[in-house]
Specification:
The chain is an alpha/beta fold and 675 residues long. Helix content is 26%, strand content 17%. It is built from 20 helices and 22 strands. The strands form five sheets. Strands 1, 2, 3, 4, 5, 6 and 16 form a seven-stranded mixed β-sheet that branches. A six-stranded antiparallel β-sheet has the order 17-19-18-20-21-22. Strand 1, helix 2 and strand 2 form a beta-alpha-beta unit. The protein starts with a helix and ends in a 20-residue tail after the last helix. The N terminus and C terminus are likely disordered. This is FAD-dependent oxidoreductase domain-containing protein 2.
């Protein structure tokens, strides 16, 4: 008896044993694998739970017609890998150049099966710690003051194995179909199960509920074989080229718009789906009516006795019966596995399909629970690309950096430069950084000024929504002011009702840069870090509170902000005004003259010439400077020739101008080592 009791005790103990990891990731989709990569590179203890037998199970099913709408641009004319990621919407971030998506497909819009293959290789080649065939069915909390966040996360799988984690990263995406219930909704077929064989729709009349890419993708597949297709949704169609939001209707799927506007039987209608009702007649045809027509009818009434809208309005738009009705309403987040103690609540309004999270991607209800990938899109819904691979690969990296600072004391990566490199640093980033470009208005580069503006510290791709928390979140200090570098569209350029092709839609002159419409860099200057209160009271549609100064770099048709007069000079002047300093570069002779004529040397001379650093002159350099109008040609100047008594004063005044500086290079001043 004693042995039996002991054995049963061991079994009971084994059944509640916890397997501990510092970090638990739910979901081995793109965002889950991206988070796993960063944790592995940092040497952290983590595990990824995936319910399927392979990563990227969503892409094994969707999109149903297998063509992705994320672009895969093979050629850009550039060899800069960071720049090329601006036009590669499928690759995850890694150190391995083999794991660029262009090596897997040459199609501009790749097949979804290729994405599945890519994600399998990403997980296997990088040896990520993914535990497959593990479905997490319940998540709850265990209070513990010694834990990182004051509690542990307890995860239970389908076999009742319990896992214990200090931090939880939810990367499950949105995969639960959106369903609208109304009388007759049982006759509706779902996007997730409807046939994808066009021949099954030959000669049929079809009604599609929804107006997103899945609805138009379905319509595109059967457009050539149906009698006609009608599409109903509560909102008007939103074209991605007008809204500049990649989740709206893409051109690759919009064939139905042609057949509608060119009067080829197909059409679009607006109406609240919850007000509809579907009635099936004896022939199997589906009739569309309105819910209120059915409210007072006898439950046993025959179909012929039911009033239809066309009985009162003989030109009712949907009076023709349909053979099939298809629901294409997208997906929502699965809240069912989370215990109430986690307070995982849906968002409000248009974001109710996502969980509520902070701009730091941390749950509003539970500290230490971060939402990654598509499910985190509430932060920038209909504003930026955070719901898609080419956006959340950067926000996932930002979350990892926040965790490194919070739990491991690793400050946000930064680089310190002398102040003379400020203009160059900004120009370099706005011309090649992919994170700023894809996550416009959400991620920004932060430039922290050192005392007396002699140097600066550069932080890349920080979430602007938590700018007020920068010192706490990054471990970096901002005692002397800061610049914020961000990318923005024009304030009134994007929208479903906007004409983005109107005449004179682009701005070309630097003095009108603030009116730029297309994506362009904007630099905000703050004398001190904005407060939480100021962040809450920022103007509508502004990513940041009102700054002490702001500068727009004028939009560029080639997105190449390197023009000396249109882009670089106005930026430098703006920075100089903010810092009350001279950020120009000078030849050695200029610095030599300034040393005798000024009380304070420009930073370039202080940090270069005075320290015996700088560009050594040569005949080739001098000839180039003369041809460019930067130097006078002193080649044939005779030292005994007449010189105007005021020539020295004239040269000094000329030095203060931006153009045609009559200076000689270093070799004319330093002839010997001793000198």
């Amino acid at each position: 008896l004693a042995l039996a009791m002991y054995a049963s005790g061991l079994c009971a103990a084994g059944s509640i044993a916890f397997l501990y990891h510092d970090y638990c990731i739910i979901g081995a989709g793109p965002s889950g694998l991206q988070a796993a990569y960063f944790l592995q590179q940092a040497g952290r203890d983590y595990v990824v739970f995936e319910r399927s037998h392979a990563p990227g199970s969503f892409f094994a099913l969707y999109p149903r017609h297998r063509k992705l709408i994320s672009i895969n641009k093979q050629y850009t004319g550039k060899s800069n890998s960071e720049f090329n990621l601006r036009h590669d919407w499928n690759s995850l971030l890694s150190h391995d150049p083999r794991l660029l998506f262009r090596h897997y497909s040459r199609d501009f819009f790749p097949n979804a099966d290729t994405m599945v293959h890519y994600l399998e290789d990403f997980a296997s080649l990088l040896k990520l710690q993914v535990q497959y065939n593990t479905a997490i069915v319940h998540v709850t909390l265990e209070k513990d003051e010694q834990a990182w966040n004051g509690h542990y996360f307890l995860l239970t799988d389908q076999d009742r194995q319990i896992y214990k984690c200090s931090s939880l990263l939810v990367a499950t995406g949105t995969w639960v179909p959106n369903v609208v219930n109304f009388p007759g909704s049982e006759y509706v077929e779902g996007y997730e199960t409807v046939s994808i064989n066009p021949e099954d729709f030959a000669g049929q009349t079809v009604l599609i509920l929804g107006r997103g890419n899945s609805a138009f993708e379905t319509a595109e597949n059967i457009l050539g074989v149906t009698n006609f297709i009608h599409m109903v949704s509560r909102s008007r169609v939103r074209l991605s080229w007008a809204t500049h939001y990649v989740g709206d209707l893409r051109a690759i799927n919009n064939g139905l718009l042609d057949t509608y506007q060119l009067k080829s039987l197909d059409g679009l209608l607006e109406g609240d789906l919850e007000d509809l009702a579907i009635i099936k007649d004896k022939k199997g045809k589906l009739h569309i009516t309105l819910r209120f027509y059915l409210e007072n009818r006898n439950a046993s009434a025959d179909i012929d006795s039911i009033t239809l809208p066309q009985d009162e309005l003989d030109n009712f738009a949907t009076r023709a019966p349909y053979d099939r009705v298809i629901r294409c309403l997208g997906w929502k987040f699965d809240f069912s596995i989370y215990n109430r103690s986690l307070r995982m609540m849906p968002g409000k309004g248009n974001t109710n399909k996502y969980p509520q999270i902070k701009p730091s991607y941390e749950s509003r209800g539970t500290r230490g629970l971060f939402v990654l990938g598509t499910a985190s899109h509430s932060v920038d819904f209909r504003k930026s690309a955070g719901g898609f691979i080419h956006g959340f690969r950067y926000t996932t990296r930002a979350v990892h950096r926040l965790l490194e600072s919070r739990h491991h004391g690793v400050p946000w990566p930064s680089t310190v430069y002398p102040i003379t490199q400020l203009t160059n640093s900004i120009i370099k980033r706005v011309n090649e950084a992919s994170g700023l470009y894809q996550m416009f208005s959400v991620l920004a580069d932060i430039i922290l000024l050192r005392e007396n503006a002699t140097a600066f510290e550069y932080l890349e791709e920080y979430p602007v929504g938590i700018l007020a928390e920068l010192e706490i979140q990054t471990g970096r200090k901002a005692p002397s002011g800061l610049f914020v570098v961000i990318m923005e569209y024009g304030k009134n350029f994007s929208g479903a009702d906007k004409d983005v092709f109107y005449y004179n839609r682009a701005v070309g002159e630097a003095q009108h840069a603030w009116q730029s419409n297309f994506l362009h860099p904007v630099i905000y200057y703050y004398k001190r870090l904005p407060t939480e209160h100021e962040m809450r009271l920022r103007p509508p549609d502004w990513p940041l509170p009102r700054p002490d100064a702001v500068h727009h770099i004028v939009e560029d048709f080639l997105t190449d902000w390197t023009a000396p007069n249109a882009h670089i000079l106005p930026l430098r002047r703006f920075l100089e005004n903010c810092l009350s300093t001279d950020l120009r570069s000078f030849f050695a002779e200029s610095c030599f003259l300034f040393a005798f004529t000024r009380q304070k040397l420009p930073p370039f001379c202080q940090q270069g010439y005075i320290r015996m650093q700088g560009l050594v002159g040569s005949q080739g350099l001098q000839r180039h400077a003369v041809e460019a109008g930067l130097l006078e040609d002193f080649t044939f100047t005779d030292s005994s020739s007449d010189t105007h008594p005021d020539s020295h004063q004239g040269s000094q005044d000329q030095l203060l101008k931006d153009h045609t500086i009559p200076l000689r290079p270093l070799q004319h001043l330093v002839n010997t080592k001793d000198e």
